[in-house]
Amino acid sequence: MRLPETRDLFARELDFPVTRETVLETVGDAELEAPTGHNETIRDVLERCDTEEFASPDGLYGSLMTFVSDGFIGRKYYDDRGGSTDPEDMGEVQF
């Protein structure tokens, strides 16, 4: 399942507010397709989250987006305006 599809899954399968335990029992085994091919389940992602209750599908989706692994965010430190945003490459910048 693609990450944006999870919001509809949450709205369809869960009654809000919902506990983290219920989310894990109901949809935790759904696999999320990462662009890099390093897929994770909803359970994998939410195990990194401390929230015990979610008030809405949007809140749960926001938590999911916050805690997905680097495989979901594309090229790390990419800036389409030029230059590197990698903290290790950033030295003194003059304007």
Describe this structure in words.
It comes from Halorubrum yunnanense. Pfam families: DUF5789. This is DUF2795 domain-containing protein. InterPro entries: DUF5789. With 95 residues, the chain is of the alpha+beta class. The protein has one domain (3-72). The chain has helices at residues 6-13, 20-27, 42-46, 57-67, and strands spanning 18-19, 31-32, 40-41, 53-54. The strands form two sheets. It has a two-stranded antiparallel ribbon with strand order 1-4. A two-stranded antiparallel sheet has the order 2-3. Strand 2 and strand 3 (40-41) form a beta hairpin. Helix 1 (6-13) packs across helix 4. The protein is elongated. The termini are far apart. The mean pLDDT is 86.
Summarize it.
This is DUF2795 domain-containing protein. With 95 residues, the protein is of the alpha+beta class. It contains 4 helices and 4 strands; from the N terminus they run αβαββαβα.
Strands in their spatial order, largest beta sheet: 1-4
β-strand amount = 5-15%
Number of H- or I-type helical stretches: 4
Total beta strands = 4
What's the end-to-end separation, in Å? 44 Å
Shape: elongated
How much helicity do the residues have? Answer: 25-40%
**Main structural class:** alpha+beta
The gyration radius over C-alpha positions equals 17 Å
Mean pLDDT: 86
The main pleated sheet reads as:
2 strands, antiparallel
Question: Could you give the order of the helices and strands?
Answer: HEHEEHEH
Low-confidence stretches: none
What is the number of domains?
1
